[in-house]
Design a protein that fits this description.
This protein has 98 residues and is mainly beta. Helix content is 7%, strand content 29%. The protein has one domain: Ubiquitin-like (UB roll) (Roll), CATH 3.10.20.440. A five-stranded mixed beta sheet has the order 2-1-7-5-6, covered by helices on one side.
Length: 98
């Protein structure tokens, strides 16, 4: 996946880019986007793994109602990636067995 920078109908404002760290790897994020959008734009689709069968989970509802996209943000577990806005230097870790 990638980000949309040009759209034929909608005007897309330019935004500041910065680094966040996902599982120890630096990725580019843009101000105003969610953690889920940043992860997807950087090719990361599995945000956590299930406890019983170790199956990958990512974005399901995209509006904060389910818990499929929970991640650890700045040492806080069980944060919903789809409704959490990125900030410079954010440290994100995918969760295992939750």
């Amino acid at each position: 996946m990638s980000r949309i920078f040009n759209h034929p109908v909608l005007e897309i404002q330019s935004r500041q880019s910065f680094e966040i760290y996902v599982d120890g790897i630096s990725v580019i994020a843009y101000e105003g986007e969610t953690v889920a959008a940043t992860l997807l734009a950087n090719g990361i689709r599995a945000f956590r793994r299930t406890r019983k069968f170790n199956e990958p989970r990512g974005v399901f509802c995209g509006i904060g109602h389910c818990a499929d996209c929970i991640i650890e943000v700045d040492s806080i577990p069980n944060v919903r990636a789809c409704i959490t806005i990125v900030h410079p230097g954010m440290i994100v870790n995918t969760q295992k067995n939750n």
